[in-house]
Amino acid sequence: xxxxxxxxxxxxxxxxxxxxxxxxxEDFGDAVKKNIALQxxxxxxxxxxxxxxxxxxxxxxxxxxxxxxxxxxxxESLVGSGVN
Length: 84
Known about the structure:
Layout: H1 2-16, H2 30-39, H3 50-53, H4 56-68, H5 76-79
C-alpha cells in the first residue's frame, strides 16, 4: 500500500510540473477563416421577395403533381439507343 501511495504522489508531483495550457500562435486558424471568406460569394445573401417566386395556382399544381404523379420516373427518353 505504501508503494502505491508513494508512486501516486510522485506521479502527481511530476504531472504538476508539466505546462497546463497550450499556447497557440496569434494567427492560428487564419487559413481556415481566409478559405471560408474566399468561398463565400455574397455574405449578406440575396433578399428575395417570395411573391416573385411562385403564385398560388402554380404551387397548387406542383403539389398535386407531386402527390398524384407516378412513383418512378420515365427513363426511356433519357436512355436513348446507345448509338452515337
